[in-house]
Amino acid sequence: MKTVVTAQQMRDAERAVWDADPDVDLMTRAAAGVARVADEMAPEGPVLVVVGPGNNGGDGLFAAATLAESREVLLWLAAGRAHDEGLAAARSAGCREVGDPASARARLADASLVIDAFTGLGARPGLPPDVATFAAACEAWQVPVLAVDQPSGLGTDGGPVGHSFNATVTATFAARKPCHVVEPAASRCGDVVVQDIGVPVPATDLRILEESDLANWWPTPDAASDKYSRGVVLLDTGSERYAGAALLGISGALHAGAGMVRYAGGAPSGLVLGRFPSVVLGEGRAQAAVVGSGWGEPDEARMARAVELGLPLVVDADALGVLPDGGMEGWLLTPHAGELARLLGVGRDEVEADPLGAAREAARRHGATVLLKGAAQYVAEPSGRVTVAVRGPNWTAQAGSGDVLAGICGTLLAAGLPAWKAAAMGASVQALAAQRHPGPYPPDRLTEFLPTVVANLDA
Question: From its phi and psi, is residue 237 left (phi > 0), alpha (psi between -120 and 50) or beta?
Fold first, then answer.
């Protein structure tokens, strides 16, 4: 997994490096990385650098000096002042300045790349009007933008998104920051490239799951395995009206590798067995259960029966409306933003503005792990630790994807994984299936790709 650090954590890590060796020049290391990425993005043609007044601008200026050795580089000193040493280096290398915002916008017509070095680490959301207008013009002209550390206009630690650059690529240093992985800011960062500048970063309570983690952790059978050791998952999902939710959850569970699936929900048994003849009807020995998908409405009696099972539960959809007052340790709640808003008694817009904070609060309040579903998916534990799942294409934003995901997570819980791993791995493997088979596949078709994805995790 990769660590994500806040602005203050990054400052502390940099300070530790300087304390150990005061002569370390982190700015030139960062600038060299920016210049490399710039050359990869646009090997030729004029480069226009938007220069801010602080160290981020200094990174951009030293990168400009390197780039000017082989191409035309223009500087817009958007704040009217700049890092003194960086500006001297850029001027000495032959960089030329554009004098005003209108001139800067005019040069977009022939620019091959814009480097956004206006604000960086620790910045707050928002841009001055002239810079906001320029950022919008970059989008209108479809000029590639390389952001230094983070797109200017975003807050490093996340938060609301107003006027900001929409980066094609963001070159950040040492580790990702919250704005790179948490929506709505993350969508403005483009592809994030982490540059090693020799700053060790500490472990934090926010990290990103990688495909290699799935390969290391996915439960695989051995010669001694049987259906019970692989995990039996019980699904109380579906209804006469929403029988499809039951089928989707069962499909997710089976294709993720369940040793056995039991079904005790409200969908017609003939429909279930006609599609999945290996399913065993009724309750019985199981290691985890999935409840709520396709119930049609909150059902206190069904929830009470689920609680009495004494199993780790995946609680989805309608079951989220009838949670018990406590005793949810080891459970996994799987709300989307609207459901999480109802759990917290806030507006959906509040959840979408601060998804990390909302997921953490729900996990703390209920004493359960929370998987907040959406374009980016966050797994929050009661301790406050959050894991960001592998991100998939937006094609998965369709009815039924959550039903499949609940089944996948149920299989992983039944295999003995802790709730946070089951959630992060379940969301990630579904995302990988969609990545590797892009397009508008319905959720039940995507489940058919899960075995191949799982089998190739080590490839």
Answer: beta
